[in-house]
Amino acid sequence: xxxxxxxxxxxxxxxxxxxxxxxxxxxxxxxxxxxxxxxxxxxxxxxxxxxxxxxxxxxxxxxxxxxxxxxxxxxxxxxxxxxxxxxxxxxxxxxxxxxxxxxxxxxxxxxxxxxxx
Length: 117
Fold this sequence. Notes:
Layout: H1 2-23, H2 29-45, H3 49-56, H4 58-61, H5 65-82, H6 84-112
Protein name: Stage V sporulation protein AE
InterPro entries: Spore_V_AE, SpoVA
Keywords: Membrane, Transmembrane, Transmembrane helix
């Protein structure tokens, strides 16, 4: 029970921050998304996102901040193994499954459903 609660409130806090950025700072959803990705990347670069994942589980891996974490984490891991080339290959290796799934599901939804307009 505690694990679910922790994931719920940590993910909720991330969502509250995003909503406050829209309501208070008058940022567009695109700017909020980009900002949260960058925040996730910076937190991973500082070594702070992995402890958050260990603590909150899905509460930290489901929100968009984890995409920034994945980009930096993959780049740093592959850079250690393959040097400078690893930075680019690491980004693609870690994020390719999620991006591919998003493209495939978006295509299937577009083919299956007719938009109203």
